[in-house]
Every structure is written in structure tokens, then in C-alpha cells.
Amino acid sequence: MTTKSLIVCFGEMLIDFVPDTAGVSLAESHGFLKAPGGAPANVACAITKLGGSSAFIGKFQEESKLKEHLPQVSLSLCLTYSLDKALLLKRRIIDCSTTHAGRGRRVWADAGKHLKKNGVNSEGVRFDQQARTALAFVTLKHNGEREFMFYRNPSADMLLKESELDIKMIKQASIFHYGSISLISDPCRSAHMAAMKAAKEAGVLLSYDPNVRLPLWPSAQAARDGIKSIWNQADFIKVSDDEVEFLTQKDPQKEDVVMSLWHDQLKLLVITDGGKGCRYFTKSFKGKVDGFTVKTIDTTGAGDAFVGALLVSIAKNPSIMQDEAKLKEALTFANACGAIATTQKGAIPALPTMSDAQALIAQSKAK
Fold first, then answer.
1. Number of structural domains, the chain?
2. Smallest Cα–Cα separation from 133: which of 74, 60, 68, 78?
3. Which residues belong to any copy of the Carbohydrate kinase PfkB domain (predicted)?
């Protein structure tokens, strides 16, 4: 994998708390599975799991101690639940987050170790000794779909400064990938804009997956405005059907609605629709690629697995965006990766390997 095949992912890495039982509220869950997550970090790990080359740029607390965060977690939970339910939920979070390493201290796993474990270049990671690593509490419905509650304000990822960017790494990339959460507030927003500018000036392909998380924005309109503020700079955009509906406030199945999101800079626009597959739009052609039928347990990270797989294909051969047959192959591969990611709980732990995806595709063809 050459340097110019490097895909740099910018943004947040957090800790996901996923209930061990689907179909119940956070307060009603008997326990949680704790796993690293955050869309840009998920994409970075998805890329390396598939044999690609990725790097992550972001910020988090180096060794975040659970006991330092419990009072704030309790307050956040009390704003959502009654006191007794909040205390019960807090106790369950403590139980699932306890590790007995060395002297038996309760600590969060160092998020950076998860990047290194998955082969992601973490030279662009910066640390904050005060701010916490963000937490996401995920409620799983019976169909595997999710609802979120975040504990983040402020978290270390929000405090990344422009002066802390690894500009050299960004300019060496073939693709610079990002979401919208890093646009919510400064100083991270300014760092995000500076990173995009450096990438664009170096001829790096800009990849954008808004990954809408409304609870993190001041309002729905602020989210729309923030997400659209950088829309026209991206070369590749992936959005879900639900996100198209949110951004346009119209029917996402209508082609004219989708095309209202098109801009002249864009080379490829992909609209995902869960297990149904995806639609693609380029300057020269458009179409649909069917998804795969799997037993869905948790959809967390499915979109990130899809994006990671597609970016691996584009990094290897950017011309696929002008070749419909090759693009459909790449999207079939991406659909397979997204489907496999739903068959386990958690985002990064569920990411597939190349052989996993190839096996699912072969199995589907054999039917």
C-alpha cells in the first residue's frame, strides 16, 4: 500500500455503551457492552481491517478514569430519568466499565490503543489531560436500529486546535474523510476547516459522511446549517435515506429530492438504505445496488463499515467513479461489509475482514 493510498480520517473517537438486551430503554437494561466507536474512528478501523492504509486525526483523554466522571454522568442521567433509575443505570455502567489491571484501578481503556491494535496510524492523535473522552449510550430496538444519548460537553475531541493538526500527513493522503460532528463548535470546527483546506490544496479527495446526530447539535436547524456549510466542497458524499429526508425535509425516494443535494464539485453521491442496499449518482450515470440479507443484531457502525469499504476501493482505483461496472462491484463489496457489521454488537469489534465480505458475496451468488 503506497503513501498515496493513505486514507486520513478526521473527527471523534468515543466509547459506546450498548445494552446487553435489545428492545429496552437504557434505564431498563441489565448491563452494557463497552466498545470503542465514533464514526471517523470506525471508518479508519474498517479500512485497515480490509487491508487498506488509514490514519486518524483527533483528540481524546489519554487515560480517562471512571471515578472522575461519575458525578457528571449521574447529573446527565438524572436530567433524562428519575433519580432511582439514574442511580441504577450509573451502577450498571460502573459494573460494565470496571477492569482490574495492575493495582485494580477502574479505568477506561486508552482509546488510542484500539487504533493501534487495528493497525491505524495514530501519529495525528492529540491528548487532553482534563477533558473526558466522549460516551455514547445506545438503545437497541428489536430490529437492531438505535437511539442515542451522549455524554460529551465538553469532550476532548471538541478541543482539537488548528495548531495541533498534522498537516504533512493530511497532504500525503489520497483521501481525507470526515463527518459533521466536528463542525458543532470551536476550536474543533476551525481545525476541521483548516484540515479540509490543506487537503483540497494538496489535491486530496474529500470524503464526507455527515452522520447526523441531532442530540449533539443546539437545534435541528443548526444541524442542517452546519452540515450544509461544507457540503459543496466534498468530492464524495455518503448519506442515508433518513439523512436525505432530514436535510431536504422531503421524500428521499424521489430522485429530484436527492439531486437537490448534488453540486458541481461532486464526483459521487451515495444514498444508503440499510439492508435494502444503496443508490448511486455520478455526473455520467446512476443506479441501485441491492443489499444483503443477514440476521441483524446491532446496526451501530454499519454505515462506517460501508464507507470504509468503498474508500478502500476508491483509494486503490479512483477511476471507478467514472466506470459504472467497477463502481457497482465496489458498492456490492461495501454493502456486504455494512451488512456483516450488523451481525454483532458494537462498532469496531463487528467490522469485517476482506475474507468475511468475499464469503458473504460468494454465498449470495450461490443462492
1. 1
2. 60
3. 5-63, 113-353
What is the rounded CA–CA span in Å between residue 262 and residue 241? 15
CA R_g for the chain: 20
* pLDDT, tens digit, 9 for 90 and up, residues 277-305: 999 999 999 999 999 999 998 888 999 99
Over the range 206-229, which residues count as b (16 or more CB within 10 Å of their CB) and which as e? bbbbbbbbeebbeeeeebbebbee
Shortest CA distance to 182 belongs to which of 229, 237, 132?
A: 229
Mean pLDDT, the chain, rounded, equals 86
Of the pLDDT bands very low, low, confident and very high (cuts 50, 70, 90), residue 109 is very low
Q: In three state form, how does the secondary structure of 117-171 look?
A: HCCCEEEEEEECCCCECCEEEEEECCCCCEEEEEECCCEHHHHCCHHHCCHHHHH
Give the 3-state secondary structure of residue 19. Answer: strand
pTM: 0.87
- Cross-sheet strand order for the sheet of 14-19: 32-37, 14-19, 135-140, 146-151
Per the structure, the complete domain to which residue 209 belongs is given by 3-14+38-64+118-132+160-366
Task: Report the chain's terminal Cα–Cα distance, integer Å.
Answer: 34
Which grid cell sits at 188? 474543533
How do residues 18-29 score in pLDDT, each as one tens digit? 777 777 776 677
Position 207 pLDDT exceeds 60: yes
The answer to whether residue 20 sits within a structural domain is no
Confirm whether 69 is domain-assigned: no
The enclosing domain of 8 has a CATH number of 3.40.1190.20
In a domain, residue 183? The reply is yes
How many whole angstroms separate alpha carbon 56 and alpha carbon 122? Answer: 6
Kindly state whether residue 169 falls inside one of the protein's structural domains: yes
- Rounded to an integer, the average pLDDT of 249-274 is 97
Q: In this model, does residue 48 exceed pLDDT 60? A: yes
DSSP-derived letter for residue 107 is B
Give the helix/strand (H/E) hosting 33.
Answer: strand 32-37
Give the CA-trace dihedral at 116, 303, 90, 63, to 10 degrees.
Answer: 20
Q: Measuring CA to CA, which residue among 263, 253, 270 is closest to residue 330? A: 270
